[in-house]
Amino acid sequence: MRAGARQAAVSRIASDPAGAAEARVRSAASGSLDDADLDVTVTPYDPQSGQAKFAQGGDVTVTATYPYSINLLGFVVKSGRLTSQTTERVE
Questions:
Q1: Using an 8 Å Cβ cutoff, are 75 and 57 in contact?
Q2: Would you put residue 73 in left (φ > 0), alpha (ψ -120 to 50) or beta?
Q3: Is residue 35 classed as helix, strand or coil in its secondary structure?
Q4: In 39, 50, 82, 85, which residue has its Cα 20 to 30 A from 8's Cα atom?
């Protein structure tokens, strides 16, 4: 998570800073998590333009969620989604 937030914080002038941050998170998780189940969001995000809007000195937040289940003797006793979130100041 921190790697993705850091990538976003230093990619303000990149053509797709949110995409770069998401790619960094997915790369960091690739050894232990199934990429298809990993959800990554980067905010602030402008739905009209479809682009992230990172202002210098502002905050960017990267959030990742992943499903989990706890099995006990073959029965699922708890399941849901784990969430991790990191915020960095945009340089």
A1: no
A2: left
A3: helix
A4: 82
First to last CA, the chain: 18
Give this prediction's pTM. 0.80
Residue type, 4: G
Which residues have C-beta within 8 Å of that of residue 89, sequence separation ≥ 6? 9, 57, 58, 59, 60
The phi, psi pair for 24, rounded to 5°, reads: -65, -40
Residues 10-33: tens digit of each pLDDT: 887 888 888 889 999 999 998 889
**CA-to-CA distance for 22 and 8, rounded, in angstroms?**
9
Question: In which residue are the tokens 């850091």 written?
Answer: 6
Tally of CB atoms within 10 A around 28: 16
Indicate if the alpha-carbon torsion angle 66, 67, 68, 74 is positive or negative.
negative
